[in-house]
User: What shape does this take?
Amino acid sequence: MDRFEDLVLSTIRRYGLLKEGQEVLVAVSGGPDSVALLLALMELRSTLGIRVQAAHVNHGLRGPESDDDELSVRLLCEAAAVRLHVGKVETREGASKARQNLEDYARNRRYEFLFQVAAVEQAAVATGHNLNDLSETLLLKLFRGAGLSGLSGVYPRTRNQLGNGVTINVVRPLLHSTRDEILDYLGRREQSFQHDSSNKDLAFDRNLLRHQLIPLLEQRLNPQITRVLGRTALLFREMEDYLSPLLDHAYQACRAEGDVPSLRLPQLLGQHPFVQKEIVRRALREVRGNLKDVSTRHVENVLRLAQIESGSECHLGNGVRVRREFELLTFGGEKATPQFVYELPIPGDVYISEIGKRIVARRLPGNPPNARAGCDRPGRILLDFSGSCLAVRNRRAGDRYRTGTQIKKLKEILIERRIPRSRRDELIVLDDGGRIVWVEGLMPDPDFRAEPGLEQALEIAVEHETFPR
Assistant: This one.
């Protein structure tokens, strides 16, 4: 067995990347890393008991070069008798329409294709990320101010949950192999590969590191800098593996109930500073979906809100705003909830798409004995109302509401009840001809509360949904 193949085998076994009988879909660009990975896995098929397929995505970004890449992969797979799946993406046009970074759009569409094929074939996806990639990623994240998860770099295996409940494993068997070892292996095999001319463009940060900074570090500081950085990333990864469950628990202990991520300040500030930062990162990940372009500076700006007065806020870009609201830090989008108004038939229901809630109205034969002043459990009220419909809306400027013997401005009532500003426009308001019958989270207007002995009560229930039925 070739020494390179032995290194790949040891990496697979060390991390348990593949199991016997598994289908493996190798992402092959035509470059040296993916070509070496495909050849090595083909040699290791019988040892590992796996079946190998390949996939290639033609992004059309380099004109004839992209077509040459596709042709070289087709010829390679034909010679090796490997089944090949090819996808084509109009990357420039698609990125322009989606208003996305070209590189990000290409990567997303590439993985989308790989996952589609892998789901059908019930395969793991194998990519050619190597030790040099790991080292470069660590430096890029370090310079941009990443947290613990960012400094952990590229993982040997990641699990990706698709929308249909299918889980696709992405494995990286070359993560302990250097670029030089890969090139040496291809030389021994007398195997040609494609050269991506864009890899020499120093306008890309990774290329600047690869061609200028890392060679300088190798020359001046340590000729083994790539392996040193790789070991450092591994150390960060082990730290994150150990700490992640503890940090997840701390996040849940600080997170207030609700659909919008909010952190309770007393609990947050009681944590160690390192834990505070990781909790904030988890809240940002929940609202953004990822931590791309989130730096330590962003996290520190959020934590500064905890030290200043309620009502203050900071804007983090990418449509994310964090606001200090009483004893909460609330994470949300820049876009305010639009005004809405719907008609609620009685009996009947209506879905409020702007806030993802369904309002259900039904008449009850008699008043439940456990009803207390029109409300017997959260999200459900009982009213004395005989009309055929109610208006369902959110608050308006100048709204006034009767809570007892007084009629006050609704805004003042919500402030007194310490309802966060970011949530006030999402509260349901029931309106009967211009008079507010009920505001979500408050008791009904006394004139509309169901009292004991009522022959027929109107039940209003608020249900949270993600999509309409």
Q: What stands out?
A: Residues 465-469 have pLDDT under 50 and may be disordered. The first strand starts at residue 23 and ends at 27. The chain has three domains: 3-130+143-222, 255-333, 341-464.
